[in-house]
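protien #1 (seq + structre)
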Amino acid sequence: MSEVFTKSMARNIYYGGSVFFFLLFLALTFDTSNAFPERDHRENITPQVAQGKAIWEENDCIGCHTLLGEGAYYAPELGNVYKRFGNNKEAIKGFIKSRPVNGIPGRRSMPQFNLTEEELDAIAEFLKWTSEINTANWPPNIQG
């Protein structure tokens, strides 16, 4: 290789790299768009799941928790909480009802939202639905 780096060499590297990464971007976009139909489970949305999502939003749960990696990191990830609680909606409902636990110094505590039994069923069903989303094994561990 010559010791002189010319403008034409720099231009060729720039254009070659641009074309390479543009083609890589197109290939990854194509692969992602082909994978989405296999991972989609919107047909499983029931009125109860929709009601649970509305309750999730009304109570600003995402202000403390993450859901599938999105949201605040103050409290635990809830995208896989159904699996962490042993695939048991009653355990989730019982946990929400038992909040807040006071008396543990330095520990964060979830507030009591005083949800009705119907609202608890809906939020548990919503959390069950989110745990069934194919996230390509994300988060990498069950604790989120």
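ok now protien #2
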Amino acid sequence: MKKKDQLPLRKGVGIVLLNEFNQIFVGKRIDNPTRAWQMPQGGIDKNENLYDAAKRELFEETSVKSTKLIKELNYWIDYDLPNYLLGKIWKGKFRGQTQKWFFMKFTGHEDEININTKNPEFMDWKWVNKEDLLSVAVSFKIETYKSLKLELDKLNVN
């Protein structure tokens, strides 16, 4: 097995989905023993446009299609997996992810949200206030979520 620093980062996308009250969608992962909450995210298919990847991942995880793009970050955010997850996620090929994040406004009705999808990733979901985002996140994504919270502050999202 390769050492952690020899493994590449997996490219992915993430979505900060905001409701009409500027609360953030988070889901509780089925496969995470800590049962922390996270925002929708996922991989990029070959030759897939990043925004299309974000919309596809959001739909695959939440069934949500009714969105309006607010902002695409002009930089990537990286995180490393903790040692206990190395070799267990992504067939051991990656040490973490580098992600392009998209801020979207949910324009649909809550009954559109359905996490019981073809390949469910979440066991539960909820809206959280921006101030509560860091307290529900898994520890190894805290720095990513801090960066996203700062971007929300720049957008004047309460």
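DSSP finds three helices and seven strands in the chain.
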